[in-house]
Design a protein that fits this description.
about 300 residues; alpha/beta; 2 domains; Quinone Oxidoreductase, Chain A, domain 1; 7-stranded mixed sheet; single chain; about 30% strand; 6 helices; elongated; 6-stranded parallel sheet
Length: about 300
């Protein structure tokens, strides 16, 4: 299937972006998507800094829209698009329409708004990787999540629950409001200003540590034999003291979560979004018309979504 549509294309490094009408053709193994939203990610900014594979090039590695034609999804299906080189090694999503490999198209779970799905996609995939792939949380396990009031901490708790955890315990700093974690955890355990974990923390099968520092050390003392700690943050400190006696004696595993060295498995995007679809999320993002993308290419711009419906 082919049609003409407007896309935003880069004509060189930096902010050389132009909205242009081009011919868009979908071939076998590809899906044609009418785009509604796209994120401006760090990967997109890197591509625009001079790493685009060709010139001109359409950036955009994450977005949401509706299927026009596909050999996999019915027309009208709401989808999220990510992966398989989209926006990196092949044309991306910053346009009214996009042609992408079938493998890059993922059904949007019912109950999850497209804006929330796109705004949450990067941290959701981080949580998915930490909980399901690295920590391998299994049905019936007790899991502790440090930094539970952070967005990433809450996403990890939601994924753990979806993975079948029987009990999810959240760690929060003393005096910190935990209202945002309501419904995601069964228990809150406090951590003092020195990173000391409350003694009421029970034995756990696995820990998802978004905090690091002395909190990591404290959590290790509450992991059951054969258990593991997946570490994906260290804003409370880059160094943790590990008791080698308990590490060896209880056969514990400390596992780093490194997204740059971890490739997503088929179905990971759809699974990750489904894991968090039942909770109410209010991610912070700025929504801009696509023709203003040049204003938000600075790496410090934060999470920005582009409204692609205005391209006409």
């Amino acid at each position: 299937m082919s049609l003409r549509g407007i896309v935003v294309r880069s004509h060189g490094p930096g902010e050389q972006l132009k909205a242009e009408e081009i011919e868009i053709v979908a071939e076998t193994g590809e899906t044609l998507v009418e785009m509604r939203l796209a994120a401006v990610t760090q990967q997109d900014r890197s591509v625009l800094a001079g790493k685009q594979p060709s010139t001109p090039f359409t950036p955009g590695s994450e977005g949401a829209g509706v299927v026009v034609s596909s050999g996999v999804f019915e027309a009208g299906t709401a989808v999220v698009v990510r992966g398989d080189g989209v926006g990196v090694t092949r044309p991306g999503l910053w346009g009214r329409y996009a042609v992408v490999p079938d493998a890059a198209v993922h059904r949007l779970p019912s109950g999850l708004e497209p804006t929330a799905a796109v705004a949450l996609l990067t941290p959701v995939l981080t949580a998915h990787t930490a909980v399901r792939r690295v920590a391998e949380v299994a049905e019936g396990e007790t899991v502790v999540v440090t930094g539970i009031t952070s967005l990433l901490g809450r996403l990890c708790a939601a994924v753990a629950r979806s993975a079948g955890a029987a009990k999810v315990i959240g760690l929060a700093w003393t005096g910190e409001s935990v209202e945002s974690a309501a419904g995601l955890v069964d228990q809150i355990v406090r951590v003092d200003s020195l990173g000391q974990v409350g003694r009421e923390l029970s034995w756990c099968d696995a820990a998802i540590d978004t905090v690091g520092g002395p909190v990591t050390s404290g959590v290790l003392g509450h992991i059951s034999p054969g258990g593991r700690v997946a570490v994906l943050g260290y804003h409370a400190g880059e160094f943790a003291t590990i008791d080698l006696h308990q590490l060896i004696g209880r056969d514990l595993r400390v596992l780093p979560v490194n997204l740059q060295r971890t490739s997503l498995e088929p179905g990971a995007v759809a699974q990750a979004l489904a894991d968090v679809a039942t909770a109410q999320w209010r991610p912070e993002f700025e929504l801009l018309p696509a023709d203003r993308v040049g204003e938000v290419l600075d790496p410090q711009a934060g999470r920005v979504l582009l409204d692609l419906t205005a391209l006409s």
